[in-house]
Design the sequence.
């Protein structure tokens, strides 16, 4: 099988994956750091390489609304946004999942204003994690490309029928150039089958009302089915990964990804692009004889609680590094999610917050994290509050 | 004795009704009449968007597992009707299948919350037919004011008291705002002139491409304060007093469609409505002045001697 | 692949027609005097519930199933051929 290698930014990689997934309608509004993703798609259309209808909408609220109309009319659809755009989109965003529309959206993760900021971090999508969408977080450009293609398959699966977010850190990935392997179009066409939207549609040949006013007992039934669909998605995400491995040779682990985990006494839990630096710190620890491993959360929704419980049980300590905050919990969001998996409370756990607003989480910060983790694994305890990873050279008004 | 009768009316009441016969619109609601008339013109290959408001509230989108229409119908959000319809039309165009993508939206959803996406759709030339039923307020939820409420109106959020004479701001001239988007077709219509209304919907259907906009003034018996049986008469009066002139703009050309040979002063219309009962002479004069000013503006756009279609 | 059964649909949709018995709202009902009717059809055109139809002889009849008794037809009739009568006189017949 011939494979092309393309040297691309994260946004370009995403655009390539979308192009190969053959969407019908794309509607997007520019926002830093997403803009070049949509620009690349526009160029693909202009070059005749992508047969999609693109609508240059006047706001993100309309972008999601147009896609809902197209999806209800049987189309495969795609959009992308970041922080403020996602926030503006929230009104239709919530009902995309509760209408069971398999829309795929890339979120080029960016901090939420205020303070005024444009830089990368998953606060935007994590803050909306309970809106019924599937959310998968990726660490590099190859994973962006692979996961977007998988996302269409997962979303449109008749056992799921839920929209999917593919989330990647703004600037760190969107603007970073890396080589990626691109499978032939025929392989992707075989992997994705055409969308069948029979469960909800606007069609004069199959007349129904979409979203009538609903009494409570029926709403409860719809919500229960939605939760069940999220649960079924756990297996569908795994299968999508193994089937994708058959055509590309690559697996990202499905719900989670483990690195040097098998005999690890202490585990570092990560989300997104920070994983790259974390791997280096893990390798350093291993070289020094410390049995440290890494667990990368890919699927935040549905949360893989059984997998996380299995992977963290029996360890001597674990810690979560959050590039986000959970207001009111004095911790990061992923830490709270991981604790929700029901790991034995006697295992010490730590939480670190860093890298907000465009600050780096450096390898040396991860070295520090590993040191703290290892100390906790050898006679330490869970700390009540999180620790902030700050660059000591930045202080005051600089 | 046999009487020679104008048979032009017959076609409309014989046309098929595409809405459920039993919906809970108020007794005498001329929005219900307008909806049925529009659907008679549009026919079954129509996807109908009804944002939250009166027509959604009365069951046109259904309740539970039912639907209130015999065509595909859905609830957009209050503020994204035009955008959802645009997406529907774009996908159907890809399929090479024709459907009418139609909004039947209240003034709240149109001139207030949903204006942004309507303007966006109009600018992009999205091929939708947008019909606004303007009862001058958020009537379904208890008569709150909208940007389309006439100055001086009592509404539940602009109540009348010693320090408030009702709504202080003027009614948005929304048909004109939409006309300034250079759309292929913009028109005003009234349930009191059903032939004119149906002809306008049919004209909009014939326009290929671009956004078609029709603005209907629907006096509301409960919200404005008059009795149900007067429903059509009040609507007729709004036209005959030039409070709501019936015109159309087709590819940039403005023309009247219903001639008003002996216009009545607006106060004859205002005095029939409880929502204006509190107005003093100054308040009435202010409204009449606005009506006159807008009529003169429209006349300039229509030019001289343009014949009425009627 | 799917092994479970739905008792209602997976997504919020409606298929059965929603029909309210609005004829039961009536306090007054329109009664057309056929001898006075000229067959202009304005009543049928203005009826918000489309409850008035024309017969072969071009006379108009009211279908009382959904008529709400608004009185528009009586008001708009140019020859006063329609009178609004108390519903209780008709004992609920449709």
Sequence:
């Amino acid at each position: 099988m011939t494979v092309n290698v393309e040297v691309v930014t994260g946004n370009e990689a995403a655009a390539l994956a979308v192009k190969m997934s053959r969407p019908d309608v794309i509607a997007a509004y520019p926002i830093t750091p997403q803009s070049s993703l949509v620009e690349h798609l526009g160029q693909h259309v202009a070059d005749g390489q992508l047969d999609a209808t693109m609508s240059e909408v006047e706001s993100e609220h309309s972008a999601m609304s147009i896609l809902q109309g197209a999806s209800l009319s049987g189309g495969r659809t795609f959009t992308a946004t970041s922080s403020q755009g996602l926030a503006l989109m929230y009104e239709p965003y919530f009902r995309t999942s509760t209408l069971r529309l398999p829309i795929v959206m890339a979120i080029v993760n960016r901090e939420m204003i205020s303070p005024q900021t444009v830089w990368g971090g998953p606060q935007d999508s994590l803050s909306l994690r309970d809106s019924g969408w599937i959310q998968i977080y990726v660490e590099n450009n190859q994973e962006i490309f692979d996961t977007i293609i998988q996302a269409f398959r997962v979303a449109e699966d008749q056992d799921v029928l839920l929209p999917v977010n593919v989330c990647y850190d703004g600037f760190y990935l969107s603007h970073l150039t890396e080589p990626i392997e691109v499978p032939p179009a025929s392989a992707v066409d075989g992997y994705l089958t055409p969308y069948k939207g029979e469960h909800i549609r606007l069609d004069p040949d199959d007349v129904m009302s979409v979203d009538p006013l609903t009494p409570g007992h029926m709403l409860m039934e719809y919500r229960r089915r939605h939760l069940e669909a999220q649960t079924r998605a756990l297996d569908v995400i795994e299968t999508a990964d193994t089937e994708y491995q058959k055509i590309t040779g690559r697996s990202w682990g499905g719900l989670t990804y483990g690195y040097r985990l098998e005999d690890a006494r202490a585990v570092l839990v990560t989300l997104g692009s920070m994983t790259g630096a974390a791997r280096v710190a893990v390798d350093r620890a291993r070289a020094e004889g410390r049995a440290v491993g890494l667990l990368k959360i890919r699927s935040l929704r549905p949360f893989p609680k059984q997998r996380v419980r299995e992977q963290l049980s029996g360890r001597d300590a674990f810690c979560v590094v959050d590039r986000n905050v959970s207001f009111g919990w004095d911790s990061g969001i992923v830490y709270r999610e991981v604790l929700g998996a029901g790991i034995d409370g006697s295992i010490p756990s730590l939480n670190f917050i860093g890298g907000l607003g465009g600050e780096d989480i450096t390898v040396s910060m991860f070295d520090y994290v590993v040191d703290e983790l290892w100390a906790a694994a050898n006679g330490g305890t869970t700390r009540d509050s999180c620790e902030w990873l700050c660059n000591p050279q930045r202080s005051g008004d600089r | 004795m046999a009487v020679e009768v104008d048979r032009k009316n017959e076609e409309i009441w014989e046309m098929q009704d595409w809405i459920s016969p039993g919906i809970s619109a108020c007794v005498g609601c001329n929005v219900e009449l307008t909806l049925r008339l529009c659907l008679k013109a549009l026919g079954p290959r129509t996807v109908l968007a009804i944002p939250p408001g009166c027509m959604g509230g009365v069951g046109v989108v259904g309740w539970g597992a039912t639907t209130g229409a015999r065509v595909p119908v859905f609830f957009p959000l209050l503020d994204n009707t035009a955008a959802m319809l645009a997406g529907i039309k774009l996908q159907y165009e890809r399929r090479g299948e024709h459907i009418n993508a139609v909004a039947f939206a209240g003034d709240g959803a149109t001139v207030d919350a949903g204006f942004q996406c309507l303007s966006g759709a109009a600018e992009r030339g999205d091929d939708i037919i947008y019909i606004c039923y303007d009862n001058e307020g958020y009537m379904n939820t208890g008569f709150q004011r909208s940007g389309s409420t006439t100055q001086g109106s009592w509404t539940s959020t602009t109540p009348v008291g010693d320090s408030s004479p009702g709504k202080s701001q003027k009614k948005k001239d929304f048909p004109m705002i939409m006309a300034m988007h250079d759309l292929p077709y913009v028109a005003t219509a009234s349930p009191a002139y059903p032939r004119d209304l149906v002809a306008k919907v049919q004209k909009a259907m014939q326009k290929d491409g671009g956004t078609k906009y029709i603005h209907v003034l629907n006096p509301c018996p409960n919200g404005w304060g008059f009795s149900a049986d007067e429903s059509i008469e009040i609507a007729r009066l709004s036209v005959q007093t030039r409070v709501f002139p019936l015109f159309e703009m087709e590819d940039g050309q403005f023309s009247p469609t219903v001639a008003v040979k002996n216009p009545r002063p607006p106060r004859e219309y205002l005095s029939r409505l409880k929502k204006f009962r509190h107005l003093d002479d100054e308040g009435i004069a202010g409204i009449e002045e606005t009506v006159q000013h807008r009529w003169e503006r429209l006349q300039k756009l229509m030019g001289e001697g343009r014949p009425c279609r009627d | 692949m799917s092994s479970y059964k739905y008792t209602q649909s997976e997504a919020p949709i409606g298929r059965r027609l929603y029909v309210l018995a609005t004829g039961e709202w009536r306090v007054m009902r329109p009664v057309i005097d056929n001898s006075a009717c000229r067959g202009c059809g304005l009543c049928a055109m203005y009826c918000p519930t489309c409850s008035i139809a024309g017969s072969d002889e071009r006379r108009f009849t009211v279908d009382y199933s959904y008529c709400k008794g608004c009185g528009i037809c009586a008001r708009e009739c140019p020859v006063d051929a329609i009178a609004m009568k108390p519903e209780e006189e008709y004992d609920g017949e449709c």
